[in-house]
Amino acid sequence: MDGRGKRFDQDLDIYHEIWNGRPYAGSDNPAVPRGTREVPLLFGGSSPAAFKRMARRGAGYIAPSLLPEAVAGTFDMARSAWREAGRAGEPRLVAINYFAVGDADAGREDVHHYYRNFGDEVADLLAGSLRGTRDSILEAVKAFQDLGADELILNPGVDDINEVSRLADIVL
After folding, report:
1. Whose CA is closest to 157, among 102, 110, 117, 95?
2. Residues carrying CATH 3.20.20.30, the chain
3. Class assignment of domain 41-171?
4. Nearest residue to 99 (alpha-carbon basis) of 66, 137, 145, 72
5. Contact criterion met (CB below 8 Å) for 153 and 141
6. pLDDT per residue of the chain (172 residues) written in tens, 0 to 9
């Protein structure tokens, strides 16, 4: 973990150089054709360095899969870092929320299992953010809209393809 941010910044330097036409691995051909639109990067994280990196190098911020009230502060920090970096406009703000309409308990178990290596406190927090009913999903959509999210990624908590249809019936 030590030095991770510094290594990431070095990788970002290489990424931007390649997108600006620097040949890759010593070849005469650039890795990215001239005139190609650079892929906008979203950054997550919660450390001051992560927010500074997002404001300096990214197109916006992607929040952790938490309840809207927990995400609100991270969106505020992203906006603040953006302004402090002298960036025009606003950062793109993206939220993520788990859902499981068919079997919410199974979804919570699966999310908890996925995050268990971070400890029970983190796994409980993330599993507890899962939305399992029509009303709770619509509530999340509205809450993230109210926070100014530009996008909400609804991530299924179970491996049932029918969850996509169930979600579409609710939000579309």
Report:
1. 110
2. 41-171
3. alpha beta
4. 137
5. no
6. 788 888 888 888 878 777 777 766 666 666 677 677 778 899 999 999 999 999 999 999 999 999 999 999 999 999 999 999 999 999 999 999 999 999 999 999 999 999 999 999 999 999 999 999 999 999 999 999 999 999 999 999 999 999 999 999 999 9
Query: How many Cβ atoms sit within 10 Å of the Cβ of residue 39?
Result: 9
Backbone φ, ψ for residue 150 (5° rounding): -80, -20
Q: Count other Cβ atoms within 10 Å, centred on residue 83.
A: 13
Look up tokens 């908590």; give the residue. Answer: 157
